[in-house]
């Protein structure tokens, strides 16, 4: 897969909001500038770049990791069971919104199925 379609990430650096470095009240999260005189909205040379469709990844290599495995988000055990046949091609990422009890079950099942996990369960010491 990698020899035919090399994985190219066009833009790795995050797009930050215009003037978020100047004012503390503005968060770094991207917001489209809407002012009539905005130099960023008018795309002046040397100003902050705005995200557009051209920064997207190639469809063939989107969601591929550097090791050549396909990244899949898993939210429950049923989704993990459906991925059993393709365990050599995929790498799972456990969703952040599920409980640690269910995460532990998913990790145990993934290890038994020989599936690589991007974010394995980490217990914090109290």
Average pLDDT value? Answer: 88
**What level of helicity do the residues show?**
10-25%
Structural class: alpha/beta
Radius of gyration: 20 Å
What's the SSE blueprint?
Blueprint: E1 70-74, H1 77-82, E2 90-94, H2 100-112, E3 116-117
Parallel strand pairs: 1-2, 2-3
Summarize the structure.
This protein has 126 residues and is of the alpha/beta class. The chain has helices at 77-82, 100-112; strands spanning 70-74, 90-94, 116-117.
Overview of the molecule:
The protein is an alpha/beta fold. Helices cover 15% and strands 10% of the residues. The chain contains two helices and three strands. It has a three-stranded parallel beta sheet. The protein is elongated. It starts with 69 loop residues before the first strand and ends in a 9-residue tail after the last strand. The mean pLDDT is 88.
Give keywords.
126 residues, alpha/beta, three-stranded parallel beta sheet, 2 helices, 10% strand
